[in-house]
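Checklist before submission:
- one chain only
- standard amino acids only
- sequence pasted in full

Submission:
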Amino acid sequence: MSFAIPPTISAPLTTKMLAQLIAHLGTSVQPGAGFVDPDPVHWILTHFRIPETADHNMPLEDYQQLVLRQAFTKDEHGNFPYSVIIWSDIKKSAKSTIAAGIVLWMAWNTPWGSIKIIANDLKQADSRVAYYVRRAIELHPEMRKLCKIRPSGYTIELPNRCRIEAIPIDPKGEAGATDTVVCFSELWGAQDKAAKRMWAEMTLSPMLYGKSFRMVETYAGFSGESELLEGLYLQGVKDGRLIEEIANQFDPPLPLYENISARMLCMWNDIPRLPWQTNDYYAQETAVLPPNEFLRIHRNQWVSSVDVFLPIEWWDSCRATEAIPPLNPEEPIILAMDAAVSGDCFGMVAVSGDGSGNRFIPRYIRAWSPPKGGKIDFQGTPENPGPERELRRMVEQYNVIEIAYDHFQLEDMAGRMKKELIVNMYDFGQQQPRLIADKSLFDKIRDQRMYHDGDPVLREHIQNANRKTEGDKLRIVKRSINLKIDLVVALSMATMRAEHWQL
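Returned file contents:
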């Protein structure tokens, strides 16, 4: 129906005419009203866009649809049944995309609402759920015209004045916020005190009881470390009730729980349920991931972040069946040092390659231990040289093209070497570079790309080592404080640099 206002009005508007005018003006100033829909499943299937399908429509599996309807079907008072929703699924199950769909659905259905997407840092918050929200808007021609995405991308404003914002964990900055939806992404990584305070600060307002919720999309974390998520898991799964009427519709049953007193719904799926999660895909992942990490991300199981570095049988299987020829003075090698001056040992390892850049050989292995209550003598004597004297001998007698070192304990020695030796000194960072190198060494030993003579001291250091998983990487750590691992750390650094030089 249309209502035209003449240029001039010669008679007063009747009550009926005024009502029609108000109704007409009301609808005409509400762009995007067609995106209002109380059913999240219908809304996502109809309006949410992804680039992976031919028509850009977002598909939902049966179990995903049932969980969404269980989570967001309102009661007779118009309230949501849950205040906390845990959506925990195995990797590559579209959990972040679904969370983005829920965020955008709620935004269109909540005029003047406030929605926060939170992760461990701003990059993570913006690169997952918030990114999928922006992408869905950009792929929808009508929605793209109506929404305002700020140049930074961190804030999206809808025509109904609802605001979506991606933020990092910062409890001081968010104190006192009143939000309609708070979406936490990958909560397994929130392991510090700030994360716990942030969760507390983002408690829902009593003024929005039944109209707001906190959502967590994640897979499992590390027992004893991901304390915030582990507490929610125990509250939802261990203290909750299996919703059998939904769970038993699937084979195997869907792990969907509710804790009525906590107003919590928790889905903790631990098996593949999607068509692209094939046996071939998991065979590939098994080959490249540490066992614990595979269980955590692909089976959604709680694991310890610390485990044996690798089965010693892997290392033994890399042992040469015939004697390895002595090191040729012309053969290029990388030397690496890992050291402490007291209470630990100093490890030095030289590595060469087979010429293909694909297989590597430890060619020199030496460890020094400090005397009881004393420190390592870096110089030593000609008959019993210390690390520095031995390093100079190696550089003089062999083709050392680089020395990799940890500057934390070796800055002074490395400084002298840079001035006196004609050899490249490489400061090997002990944070991200070490994580990459340690995972690379794990892979090379697993794939039998190492070739060694069975040196018993190096083997002992490998047996002493545990691995601490950090995402898709790992760090070599001591199994206990008294065990030595310096040689395996030096082997990790030397092998990584040998690969860099394509020896």
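Reviewer check: The chain has 18 helices and 18 strands.
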